[in-house]
Amino acid sequence: MMRRTDFTITDQGTIWMFVPLTQKALTWLTEEVYSEDWQWFGAVRTVGGMLCVDHRYAADIAEHIIEEGFRVAV
Q1: Which CA distances in Å does 19 have to 5, 14, 25, 26, 34?
Q2: Cα distance between residue 49 and residue 20, in whole Å
Q3: How far apart are the first and last CA of the chain?
C-alpha cells in the first residue's frame, strides 16, 4: 500500500508555500510552526490551506518536516 503525501512544498523564491494534505500534517504544522492568520492563503489552518513562509526560515521547516517522517511532494 502506498503512503499518501502529507505535504506539498513549493519554493517560489522569497516565499515558500507549505500545504498540509493530511490532518496529521496540519496538526504538526500548527503545533510546531508559529504563524499568523495573514500568512495563510486560502482556508486558515485547514487541510489544503497554504502557509506562506519567508525563504530564510522555510528550509529549516522543510527539513524538520522530513525528519519527522512526513512524505513530501515538491
Answers
A1: 10, 17, 9, 8, 15
A2: 7
A3: 21
Write down the pTM of the prediction.
0.92
What CA–CA distance (Å, rounded) separates 51 from 40?
Answer: 5
Phi, psi of 70, deg, nearest 5: -75, 150
d(CA 48, CA 51): 10
**Tens digit of each residue's pLDDT (9 = 90 or more) over 15-68:** 999 999 999 999 999 999 999 999 999 888 999 999 999 999 999 999 999 999
- From residue 10, alpha-carbon distances to 1, 2, 42, 55 in Å are 26, 22, 15, 11
Show me where the domains of the chain are located.
7-73
C-alpha cell at 65: 518536516
